[in-house]
Amino acid sequence: MHSPALRGRASLLTSLLLLSYLCGCGDQSPPPSTPVVSIPNRDFRVVAGQPQPSKALLSIQPNQIRLDRNADGLQLVALHSQTQAGTNPSSDLTHKVEWSVEPPEVAQVDATGFLRPIRPGRARLIAMWNELDAELPIEVIEPTEPTWDFANRIVPILTKQGCNTGGCHGKAEGQNGFQLSLFGYDPSADYDSLTRQAGGRRIDPLRPDHSLLLRKATGQVPHIGGRRIDPGSDAERLLRDWIAAGAPSRSGSGLDQATNIVVVPNNQVLPGPESFQLRVLARNAKGQTRDVTRWAIYRSNDDRVAGVDDHGYVNLRQPGE
User: Fold this and answer.
1) DSSP-derived secondary structure letter, 22
2) How far is Cα 139 from Cα 265, in angstroms, rounded to an integer?
3) How far is C-alpha 23 from the geometric centre of its chain's CA atoms?
4) What is the pLDDT of residues 108-126, one digit of tens each?
């Protein structure tokens, strides 16, 4: 067992599988930068000839939030830093702060810091921890037209839930008459399987909640693969909204194909056991970004050193790499 005083360097090697993902068109937040809203817990003044006292800061990333009402949402991060004499150590408090939105009718944020738009308007995002607090203005806008892209927004859900793996509908012969391409490599074929085959009975735009796709995935009817999607989850909501919109292959302004994904932070060195939240951004050739934290798939190369959950929350357990 390592001594409590031991300081180890730990760097999480997170492998992300993000298949058939296309980027948004500027309706999501830009990559995180230095936060513009930071409220210290006490005032201080620099006096000539005297060392600068430390000040505790709580900040929110990203530092600008402007969301399309139909956007999938985005992951927030709350950072606590102690600034003193040229040092700036920080710790992640994303799952520890108390999040809120005022007024709550514009957007909602859960205990993990995931923000979901509700209706157009302006509001304040607030994070509180002990005597520290930080806030950020947010704006939710009404899109000029609904934007749907099956390959962009629906295939990643099927991939995340394991529906198109080799052990389920992604195997060569499919499963129980329903076949998907392995890990969504052929979105066009997958779209036809869901909306055209079996007489189109897998989806019901007039009664979205009665769609066989939703009822089987959420365990409402017998399913060999068991329940894959939790009722009331973001995955169920997006699938239902897509079906209610007529299950389009592509509609609205469309979304450009992603050229790369960015993980924030991309390298983390910690002094000891600690937890922190990742953000994953898909970026297109125009430099536009889209938060895809909830739809990325995470793996740690050594679970003994660091584990990561389905939402990108990392738990550093012991010194290592």
Assistant:
1) B
2) 25
3) 14
4) 999 999 999 999 999 999 9
**Contact by Cβ (8 Å): 288, 26:** yes
Q: Extract the tokens encoding 227.
A: 């329940």
> Computed from CA positions of residues 104, 110, 113, 116, in that sequence, does the dihedral angle turn out positive or negative?
negative
Calculate mean pLDDT across residues 6-25.
Answer: 37
Say whether pLDDT at 76 is over 50.
yes
Predicted TM-score (pTM) of the model is 0.74
Q: Which two tokens stand for residue 178?
A: 């329903």
Cβ–Cβ under 8 Å, residues 190 and 180: yes
Report residue 14's pLDDT band, with 50, 70 and 90 as the boundaries.
very low
Bridge partners (DSSP) of residue 139 are 66, 122
Q: Which residues pair with 81 in a beta bridge?
A: 57, 90
Amino acid at 245: A
pLDDT digits (tens, 9 = 90+) for 59-70: 999 999 999 888
CA distances from 168 to 106, 159, 165, 221, 224 (A): 39, 11, 5, 17, 9
pLDDT of residue 49: 42
Distance CA 257, CA 303 (A): 32
Q: Is 309 exposed, middle or buried (0-12, 13-18, 19+ CB in 10 A)?
A: exposed
Name residue, tokens 């939105």: 101
Residue 9 bridge partners (DSSP):
none
The Cα 179–Cα 34 span in angstroms is 46
The answer to whether 131 and 162 have CB atoms below 8 angstroms apart is no
Distance CA 271, CA 5 (A): 9
DSSP string of 60-78, one letter each residue: EESS-EEEETTS--EE-EE
How far from the centroid of its chain's Cα atoms is residue 172's Cα? 31
